[in-house]
Amino acid sequence: MSTRRPAQPAPRQPRAKDVRSGQRRGQDVRTQEVRPADVRPDPSWGLERRGPAPARLDDVDQRILAALADDARLPNNALAARAGIAPSTCLTRVRQLRERGVIRGFHADVDPARTGHPLQAMIAVQMRGAARTRLSGYLQRLAELPGVLNVFLLGGAHDFFVHVAAADSDALNEFVIEHLSTDPDVALTETNLIFQHARASWY
């Protein structure tokens, strides 16, 4: 099930004009005149470009990460047994993975339904052209809204997917209207209800 909430359409940008720049060897040569006001902002302008370099992981690191992704509360002895290494080595490996930023933290997997938020939805958000220069800042703003579980910054027709949990359909509708549809930077929202969810085993 999905509902679409279009906001006011953004003004259409004027088309670039073709102008004749001259002739070469008897042929018409046309170049495209592009004015700064005619250029739509590059979606990547609002993104932070500082990405960490991939870490080098061996088979032992992979086994440790897979075990912790499955159960982050594993005692060190049990984790070492799964990885096939000594407990002292396992402690050192886990510490190094945290220091290198491979392991960002350990979090509880909370069931939203048990906390009174059984209705989950994925909301697609499309921003207006001018707002695309501030995507990273808007990402953090969305992540701080009540009921938001995850926010994904996209490259495509939509700019964000916002994973939310709500008490019921009325609460979900209120969230969309209050935080998204009335925002002047938002051009369009599309709400898709989530009926089932399976947690992937790959970390």
Architecture overview:
This protein is 27% helix and 25% strand. The protein has five helices and seven strands. The protein has helices spanning 59-70, 76-83, 87-99, 135-143, 169-181, and strands at 2-6, 17-24, 27-33, 119-127, 148-153, 160-166, 186-194. The strands form two sheets. The protein has a five-stranded antiparallel β-sheet, with helices on one face. The protein has a two-stranded antiparallel sheet with strand order 2-3. Helix 1 (59-70) crosses helix 2 (76-83) and helix 2 (76-83) packs across helix 3 (87-99). The longest helix is centred in the middle third of the chain and has 13 residues, at 87-99. Residues 16-41 have low confidence and may be disordered.
The radius of gyration is 24 Å
Q: Cα distance, first to last residue? A: 29 Å
Structural class, from helix and strand content? alpha+beta
How much helicity do the residues have? 25-40%
Relative strand content: 25-35%
Poorly predicted spans? 16-41
What spatial order of strands do you see in the largest sheet? 1-7-4-6-5
Give a quick account of the main beta sheet: strands, pairing sense, barrel closure: 5 strands, antiparallel
Broad shape: elongated
β-strand number: 7
- Report the mean per-residue pLDDT as an integer: 83
Number of helices: 5
The H-and-E topology, N to C, reads as: EEEHHHEHEEHE
